[in-house]
Automatic annotation (TrEMBL):
Record-linked InterPro entries: 6-hairpin_glycosidase_sf (IPR008928), 6hp_glycosidase-like_sf (IPR012341), Glyco_hydro_88 (IPR010905), PolySaccharide_Degr_Enz (IPR052043)
UniProt-recorded name of the protein: Six-hairpin glycosidase
Organism: Rhodofomes roseus
PANTHER family assigned: UNSATURATED RHAMNOGALACTURONAN HYDROLASE (EUROFUNG), WALL GLYCOSYL HYDROLASE YTER, PUTATIVE (AFU_ORTHOLOGUE AFUA_2G14630)-RELATED
Glycosyltransferase in keyword set: no
Domain of life: Eukaryota
UniProtKB keywords: Glycosidase, Hydrolase, Signal
Amino acid sequence: MFWPTLTLLGISSLPLALGTTYSTWAANSAITRGQGNGLNASGDPVVTYEHGVLQWALRLLYEKTGNRSYYDYITEAANNILNENGTVVSVYHPSEYQLDYIPPGWSFLYLYNTTSDERYKVGADEFRTQFETQPRTPEGQFWHKGAYPEQGWLDGIYMGDVFYARYTAAFQPTNRSAWDDIANQFIEQYSHGIQLASSINATNNETYLGLLYHGYDDSHAEDWASPDRGHSPEVWDRAVGWYVMAIVDILEGSPTTDETFFMRETIRSQLQILSRALVKAADSESGVWWLVLTQPGRAGNYFESSGAAMYIYALLKGVRLGYLEDTDGSFVATAKRAYEYATANWVIPQSDGTMDWNNTVIVGSLEPGNDYEYYINEPININDLKGLAPFILASLEYEALVGA
Ligand SMILES: *[C@@H]1O[C@H](CO)[C@@H](O)[C@H](O)[C@H]1NC(C)=O
Ligand SMILES: *[C@@H]1O[C@H](CO)[C@@H](O)[C@H](O)[C@H]1NC(C)=O
Ligand SMILES: *[C@@H]1O[C@H](CO)[C@@H](O)[C@H](O)[C@H]1NC(C)=O
Ligand SMILES: *[C@@H]1O[C@H](CO)[C@@H](O)[C@H](O)[C@H]1NC(C)=O
Ligand SMILES: *[C@@H]1O[C@H](CO)[C@@H](O)[C@H](O)[C@H]1NC(C)=O
Ligand SMILES: *[C@@H]1O[C@H](CO)[C@@H](O)[C@H](O)[C@H]1NC(C)=O
Ligand SMILES: *[C@@H]1O[C@H](CO)[C@@H](O)[C@H](O)[C@H]1NC(C)=O
Ligand SMILES: *[C@@H]1O[C@H](CO)[C@@H](O)[C@H](O)[C@H]1NC(C)=O
């Protein structure tokens, strides 16, 4: 193998090349391919969450390594989607109320902080303004998109609320109503979507894990909405990944004050419960997770790579920053084992010195007819940022753990 790991020397999951880590290797490979820079494959501006996630990973990598190229890449990416006056380019359509547009706003907040350039504040304000009129369920949760009425998705919690929290932390840190509003997003999503042992659908061969269904429809209009709480039928690995990443990132990015106390306790306790469930849900042989967690081993199901990367990041970061109590060591042990599987199975060295990342499913949505067959029939992708960026995040945490 071109980039053998150090497993034989007892140091697992670090690439052998001197001075290289998986985090830099994966990031440099993405940069070489021109990914996540605010432009699409035809070189036109694109405002999309997966670019925001890569830029977040590059920021952490810049803070770790001091390599200015990462910072410059974030700047270039943000500038690619801002007009001269700081407004967001016209491919952003606020009237669609898509939370998926928002994550590149993290880079605006970051660059405003480091440069004080007002253009970044203008862009961040424009995204924040979307929330003012974002349609909500009767209980106050943001709709995932204007086109998905009354629906709360785990994905949207990450796309919307991480920015909401970072914006509030930067400009309105004592705004109690904003912090409570963020807490409420999590409360609503969790109460509608946590799997209950008492209402497992035996006809659907559903396995009880105590995790969160992909989403819910408060109006019960969708054909997939369960009769009780309107939730979708299956637990999709990446959706749960977005949710737990949102929790650790919001805990890290929000101040510890009286105003944030309720929000922090709410999401921290959810993280503790979900992390225990994730440890139990890991496949006992491989140590990683099924694409459709509720249907382990069923024909067509497979070990998907974006969800695993997200769980590794959330578990290790949660323990490192003290949000999770890892009393029996199982959170770290589970994350390490999964990380070793990931580097051995999903990293593919290329002859030009870059690496490819495999087995990330391209999409999972809640269209009419949502069911098990839908998820397993979505294709996988090589170097999909929805898995590759979380792999950089997972690698940064693994490297912090082992001191690399
Ligand atoms: C810094 O990052 C850039 C961009 O990926 C990479 O090309 C370069 O080799 C890195 N520099 C060092 C000293 O590692
Ligand atoms: C890039 O974006 C432009 C403008 O939105 C669009 O017309 C074009 O089809 C996109 N290209 C790709 C490859 O997605
Ligand atoms: C900012 O610039 C864009 C693009 O040139 C333009 O459409 C918009 O009207 C400007 N907005 C303001 C507030 O000047
Ligand atoms: C940048 O963030 C730090 C930490 O939150 C804060 O103390 C500082 O005032 C911010 N600077 C600017 C220019 O926003
Ligand atoms: C505080 O947050 C609420 C909820 O997001 C918002 O409507 C309000 O404008 C904010 N208040 C201030 C003073 O920023
Ligand atoms: C449940 O499992 C049984 C036995 O494997 C299978 O025949 C049936 O089609 C499954 N039901 C659904 C809804 O997938
Ligand atoms: C249980 O699953 C079956 C098969 O997918 C479905 O037809 C049925 O509506 C579900 N029942 C409930 C109560 O959700
Ligand atoms: C990527 O994963 C798929 C599915 O597991 C596999 O069929 C394919 O061979 C892998 N690609 C490479 C280049 O290893």
